[in-house]
Amino acid sequence: MTTAVIAYNLGGPDKPDDIRPFLFNLFNDPKIIGLPQPFRWLLAQLISRRRESTAREIYAHLGDGSPLLANTRAQADALEAVLNADGPETYRCFVAMRYWHPFVDEALDEVLACDPDRIVLLPLYPQFSTTTVGSMMRVWEQAVDRRKLTLPVTALCCYPTDPGFVSATANAVTSALDSVPAGQACRVLFSAHGLPKKIVAAGDPYQWQVEQTAASVMREIGREADWLCCYQSRVGPLEWIGPATEDEIARAGEDGVSVILVPIAFVSEHSETLVELDIEYREVAEHAGVPRYIRVSTVGTSPAFIEGLAALVRANIEHGCAICSSDGGRLCSAAWSQCPAQAAGGSA
Question: Each residue of 242-264: pLDDT tens digit?
Answer without folding.
Answer: 999 999 999 999 999 999 999 99
